[in-house]
Amino acid sequence: MKFFTLLPILLLFITVGHAQNYKLIEEMKHVADKERATAIAEELVSVTPKKYRLIFAKESVNAGILRFRFVPNEITDADLENKKFTEQQRASFITIDFSFFNAGEDKNAVRPAFITYKLNEINCAYPELFAIWKNFFRGDVESEITLTDFKSQHLKEPEKKIDIYIYQTEEGWALRNMSIN
Question: Domain locations in the chain?
Fold first, then answer.
């Protein structure tokens, strides 16, 4: 009898554990400011198997991109400055790009007073990207299957205007956010 009483609670935990973080996914489509974009980037990287630190956040007005670069903690500032890291270590860097667009009134301004950021792309090695994918986007996937299964690599929900996928690149793996604001 106790089992049947606990069954609905157990199913709720299982469902919540595999659900997407829709609140964060929705926020990623229209982030209010650079500080919140930084916090989101750090939150995404916090679930990766290795520990990372942010080395820069650069905004390119011409490209309309706010770029964050994270490196593994074991790479020191001196190593970065002297470029003393291996190609394998370089391949483990995480780059997160937010695009930005005019959210204000003057659409012709060179740098509008009011802009909104949107998560555009994440580039990194598969173990790091899979951790981000599973924790924030597709809690129901498995690492080995996701390597080759298109359905596991895609989160598309037209009614919520969500279209996000991961794919293999020449340098590693990437997440692309095609969601509509």
Answer: 20-177
